[in-house]
Structure formats: C-alpha cells, structure tokens
C-alpha cells in the first residue's frame, strides 16, 4: 500500500471514529428549552403519546467503551493503513502457524510410510487410499480423475512411459518433475527438402507405427528423419527414456496421431512440463502418490506384492 493510500485510510478511520463520538455527545445532551421526555406533542387516537426519553447513561457509556475498544483494536492489529500494529499479527503469520500445525499432523500420519519402496506401498490398502486421495487433490486436474489423461497429458493407466515406468523412475518424475521439449523443425525441414518436406517426414513418422509399404512420401522422409530425429528418437524410432523422447513405433500419441496433430508436433514443436512436487508434497506423500500411479499400470505386480505381504 502506498503512503498516500495509507494516510487516506487512516484519516477516513479517524473521521469515522470522531464522528461517532460527536454524534453520541450531541444527541445525548439536553439543551435549555427542550421539551420534557413526555411532551413531544405526538399523540394518536387521543391517548397514545410518543415519548422522547434519552438512553440510560450506562447504555451511552457502553457506546463510548466500544469506541475506545476499537481504537485499541486498530492499534494492536494492522487496521490503520500500512501500520503493522503493535501486536505484530498478520494473516500470513497466522497461515504459517496453522500450516506448521497441520503439517506436523500430516507428518505423523505419513511417517509410517517414509522410505518404503513403491511396490510395498502399492500392496498396502491404507497407503493406496492415501495415495488416491493425494492424486485426486493434486494430479487429477491434468491427468483426470481416472488418470487416463487427455491430449497433451499422459494416460497413467497404460504401459507407455516416456521417462520410464520402473518404480524409482515414476517416483523421480513425481518428486522432481520432467520437461520434454520437441523443437520446431518446419523451417529446417523446408530448407532441407523443399515444400513437401513436412509431408514426407510426417508420412515416414507414421510409417514407423503403421508401415504402409511402398509409400513415396515415407521413402522421401526417411533421410530427413535420419538427419534430424535419430538423436532423440533413435534410428528405429523406439525413443529414449533418458530424454523423454517417445517411442514412435507404437500407437500412442500424446498430442494426437492425426495428420494435423503430427504436422503441428513436428513443425511447431511441443513443450511439455510435469511440475516437481517435492516441495509441495514432501517426499513421503510424493512416494504414496507415485505408488498409486505405478499400481494403475502394474496391477498384477501390486496384487502379487499384496499376496506376499499377507
């Protein structure tokens, strides 16, 4: 808050409090010539008279006490513009204290799961209930309540993992996040192969998962692919988990498998970000939600681990 606005608020408060004091004083005092409380001359139906009796002194004093209290309240709490108040209270400090209390309670609840491997957590029904709840509160916004994702957001219930689907890889993804960058290649490709270069490389990319046999554009796209794409996706198109480069030989397309979607992915590039949740959730809660996510695509190992645990 600027100094000008701060003084505006302070002056406005002072005027209001002063106005209340003056109004009480002015209306409570009787003046010479005022009619008696029973002589207002307002009479109805011959015997109903309106009186003008003043408030009892104790009642008026309560109003004054309320005003004094309000002044003390504004001095103790930050109610006068940018003045912080003598009590040092702030909503931020109040929030931090409450957060510390609730975090301590959560730590106590989650402490029994600290450091446990994901398969062991996936075999624990109580851990999975907690993991599902954390997922619903934190992850469902992007991946959906069923974890099946959407265009641009991975399906967590299948066996396709661009960054690896082993338990520790899934945990690393949740804790520290991932950032996948597909650079735009349209200008580079046009310079290498002319106006039909984009058509050719899209045809070849599609042929890796749907070999058409004898496709003219796919044949033209192969050398373009080998010149630009093998560094990330590999010579055979199976991708690279270390880079998050997807496997192009399956039928899963994160951003859509239509020709329009492939033209956009290759020509304009993609930039996918999975935020890090280490600071937001802490390691134990991240471990619980990672175990839940891992169990969605590995139901059999999770069930086997549960049977072994029993």
Automatic annotation (TrEMBL):
The regions listed as transmembrane in this protein's record are 6-25, 58-76
Report the residue ranges that make up the Cytochrome c domain in this protein: 126-209, 216-297
Q: In which pathway does it act?
A: Energy metabolism; oxidative phosphorylation
What does the record say about how the cofactor binds?
Binds 2 heme C groups per subunit.
Locations listed in the record: Cell inner membrane
Where does the record locate the signal sequence feature? Answer: none
Q: How does it assemble?
A: Component of the cbb3-type cytochrome c oxidase.
Q: What is the documented function of this protein?
A: C-type cytochrome. Part of the cbb3-type cytochrome c oxidase complex.
Give the family per the record: Belongs to the CcoP / FixP family.
**Protein name, as recorded:** Cbb3-type cytochrome c oxidase subunit
- Encoding gene (name): ccoP
